[in-house]
Amino acid sequence: MSKLRFGLIGLGEIAFKSTGKIFGVCERCEMVAGVDPVAEIASSYEAEYGIPCGTDLDEVLAREDVDAVIVSTPHYLHAPLGIEAAKAGKHVIVEKPMATTLEDADALIETCRANDVLLSSKESGVYYQPQTQKAKEAVESGAIGEVMGVQITGASNKPTSYWTGGYTNRVKTEWRMSKEQSGGGILVMNYIYDVYRMRHVTGLEVKRVFAEYDTFNTDVEVEDYISVSLRFENGAVGTISAGSAIPGAKRSGVRGTETSGNRIHGTKGQIVFAGNRLLVFTELDVEGLTKDDWTEIEFDGGRYDSYARYFDRFAEAVFEGRRPDVPGDEGRKTLEILVAAYESGRTNVPVDLSA
Ligand SMILES: NC(=O)c1ccc[n+]([C@@H]2O[C@H](COP(=O)([O-])OP(=O)(O)OC[C@H]3O[C@@H](n4cnc5c(N)ncnc54)[C@H](O)[C@@H]3O)[C@@H](O)[C@H]2O)c1
Predict the structure, then answer these.
(1) CA distances from 72 to 45, 94, 136, 319 (A)
(2) Is 158 helix (H, G, I), strand (E, B) or coil?
(3) What residues does 264 pair with on adjacent strands?
(4) Ligand 1 neighbourhood includes 84 CB (under 6 angstroms)
(5) Cα–Cα dist 313/74, whole Å
(6) With a 6 A CB cut-off, is 171 part of the ligand 1 pocket?
(7) Following DSSP, what letter does each residue of 245-296 receive, concatenated?
(8) 13 C-alpha vs ligand 1 centroid, how far in Å?
(9) Taking the domain 4-122+306-326, which CATH number applies?
């Protein structure tokens, strides 16, 4: 079976600790080259994963055996590097977020379209998580009735070293602290997954956003606490409340416990995302769920399975000449909500979205 051959652009923390390993279990994809401007980062990636890695992007983009790229760089470089790759005829997966501005996202989408290459933004990998799929099934079956509200909550306590080296200190860098280079703090960095998941599971788009945020407990430009109010197209309301410097919280955060998890509240039931479990309450007779009670569904398998599937399905889309399950426009729609939240917090007025 043929495999889609990827060049990795950016060989820092996520490429090293996660993407390289995920490719080890992918069936339709392989890594064939890597590039990073820091020579030692490139050479240690080559030593670990056995693919040729250098510092020259043009060399990678000129290779005929590179069909696609994954851009795993600081956020402000996703769109410009994705655009370069698309112009070289490579299909593009960008790490989340797709870009730091909607203008950049639009330029990336348009360049991929003009060059007839596929585009996807990697937060959409949660599409393949079994919890996400089961929750979507529950919503579509009518088990929770009409969606009234959505809650996304999270607390973490990132160590000071995170801001200059991530969780592994593999790369010494300051982009995470910079508003311009990262686009924002805890919201864009971590809760983008949850925002995409809620859009996907409910099938509802956000039409208005209001936010308050600040930097209370960290010496960085970006927010370390944010509170967002959302209004969805069907009238449902939503909240996002997240902080990254909360004493007592775990360093990389907790989301989805019974007492403080992401929830969807409906007129006939509710759904709680609780780690690798999904809890569904329904007042109705729905196959597979207990009426007037909670049904707890446990999933095995970790994120690797979902993300291997994400890469493999992207490859299949290329081979079959169809759009990816979650195309670039979805990354743009999710980004629009985050950009609106930052704009609203800056101007103190709600922001209406185009959707
Ligand atoms: N670290 C994580 O746990 C994690 C998890 C999920 C997603 N991500 C996402 O992955 C992306 C990268 O994050 P990271 O944590 O790996 O950051 P990082 O700083 O560890 O790595 C980024 C790498 O990009 C390289 N780079 C900079 N400019 C480049 C260029 N012009 N061409 C090629 N490479 C260039 C840097 O030298 C560095 O090695 C971000 O979008 C981030 O949000 C990270």
Answers:
(1) 13, 7, 29, 23
(2) coil
(3) 150, 271
(4) no
(5) 25
(6) yes
(7) B-TTS-TT-B---SSS-EEEEESSEEEEEETTEEEEEESS--TTS-BTEEEE
(8) 6
(9) 3.40.50.720
Is 94 touching ligand 1 by the criterion CB < 6 Å? no
Give domain limits for the chain.
4-122+306-326, 127-301+335-352
188 lines ligand 1 (CB under 6 A): no
Instruction: Report d(CA 300, CA 293) in Å as an integer.
Output: 23
- Looking at ligand 1, which residue's alpha carbon is closest to its atom 25? 10
Among candidate residues 102, 35, 42, 162, the one with its CA nearest the CA of residue 338: 102
CA dihedral 26, 326, 108, 32 (to 10 degrees): 10
pTM of the model: 0.96
DSSP, collapsed to helix, strand or coil, labels residue 5 as strand
Burial of 183 (0-12, 13-18, 19+ CB in 10 A): buried
Tens digit of each residue's pLDDT, the chain (355 residues)? 799 999 999 999 999 999 999 999 999 999 999 999 999 999 999 999 999 999 999 999 999 999 999 999 999 999 999 999 999 999 999 999 999 999 999 999 999 999 999 999 999 999 999 999 999 999 999 999 999 999 999 889 999 999 999 999 999 999 999 999 999 999 999 999 999 999 999 999 999 999 999 999 999 999 999 999 999 999 999 999 999 999 988 776 655 454 456 999 999 999 999 888 899 999 999 999 999 999 999 988 655 689 999 999 999 999 999 999 999 999 999 999 999 999 999 999 999 997 5
CATH 2.60.40.2140 given to domain 127-301+335-352: no
